Amino acid sequence: MKHRLLRVNELLKRELSTIIAREISFAGALVTVNQVDVTPDLKKAHAFVSVLGKEGQAAAMAKLEENRVILQTALAKSVTLKYTPQLVFHLDDSIERGARVFEILQQIEPPAAETE
Questions:
Q1: What percent of the chain has pLDDT above 90?
Q2: Residue 56: half-sphere exposure toward Cβ, Cα within 13 Å
Q3: In Å, what is the CA distance from 66 to each residue of 6, 10, 28, 95?
Q4: Strand, helix or coil at 34?
Q5: Cβ-based neighbour number of residue 33 at 10 Å
Q6: Domains of the chain
Q7: For residues 28 and 35, which has the higher predicted lDDT (pLDDT)?
Q8: Measured at the alpha carbon of residue 9, what is the angle toward residues 7 and 61, in degrees to the nearest 5?
Q9: What integer is the mean pLDDT of 90-108?
Q10: What pLDDT score was predicted for residue 111?
Q11: Residue 116 — pLDDT band, cuts 50, 70, 90?
């Protein structure tokens, strides 16, 4: 069963990414679906989305929420499941946090030329 959930997660992530790119335009922001976690009963799908472009994060999340029904309908047409899961969007800032950690590490680490 767990293997099936992983396949469903991956399928929904791929399809949702395509649908969002096709159906919704975000001004000045790049929206990416990083991960989708479906509950075991397939009733809800938690979509973790990253938004590049600081000013557009809240607006992009609001736009996704406004278009949730449209996205679910499109998802139901492209993916055949017993239930079409209800989409729940979450802002995923893990890429941003990772970039910040990398930035800090670069500041700490002395350049290679100085150590020789």
A1: 25
A2: 16
A3: 27, 24, 18, 24
A4: strand
A5: 22
A6: 2-115 (3.30.300.20)
A7: 35
A8: 160
A9: 81
A10: 62
A11: low
